[in-house]
From TrEMBL:
PROSITE patterns: THIOREDOXIN_2. This is thioredoxin-dependent peroxiredoxin. It comes from Bradyrhizobium macuxiense. Belongs to the peroxiredoxin family. BCP/PrxQ subfamily. The lineage of its organism: Bacteria, Pseudomonadati, Pseudomonadota, Alphaproteobacteria, Hyphomicrobiales. GO terms for molecular function: thioredoxin peroxidase activity. CDD domains: PRX_BCP.
Length: 163
């Protein structure tokens, strides 16, 4: 049964400046928005590393990483998992997209990907599967909320190509 979700009030809107971030990533080091100045950027927010839907989504973005690169677009995956969990996820599924750890949920909240969810009659806070496409000027070009995984990475690629 799919989880029902509500978008947080005051969530990020298309046309807004992408919120800055600086967070640790798999393999060491950190990643910040300014690292991608002048480039298109896809940020896909997923609930939990190594779960079925998140694995399919990350594999799809990895499968299309060359096509994204050809479109001048960088892809980053973000969840609230630890760096260690992100590295295990990357290694287990041979993922090529960088995975960012946002354990404090600052980036998740700034991008509207953290909010109230409900499943089986229980309400809780969690990651709302969301993808944000940032254009070369650092503005949000497109937001996909409550993402359904199948075919999603392909749709994001088409949107990136059209910018």
């Amino acid at each position: 049964m799919a989880a029902a979700t509500k978008s947080p009030a005051g969530a990020l809107a298309e046309g807004a400046r992408a919120p800055a971030f600086n967070l640790p990533r798999d393999g060491g080091g950190s990643v910040s928005l300014k690292d991608f100045a002048g480039r298109k950027l896809v940020l896909f927010f997923y609930p939990r590393a190594d779960t079925p839907g998140c694995t399919r989504e990350a594999i799809d973005f990895t499968r299309l990483s060359g096509a994204f690169a050809d479109a001048g677009t960088v892809v980053l995956g973000i969840s609230g998992d630890t760096v260690k969990a992100q590295e295990s996820f990357r290694n287990k599924h041979q993922l090529s997209v960088p995975l960012i750890s946002d354990e404090q949920h600052q980036m998740l909240e700034a991008y509207g990907a953290w909010g109230e969810k409900s499943m089986y009659g229980r309400t809780f806070m969690g990651v709302i599967r969301t993808t944000v496409l940032v254009d070369t000027s650092g503005k949000v070009a497109r937001i996909w909320r409550h993402v359904k995984v199948d075919g999603h990475a392909d749709a994001v690629l088409e949107a990136a190509r059209s910018l």
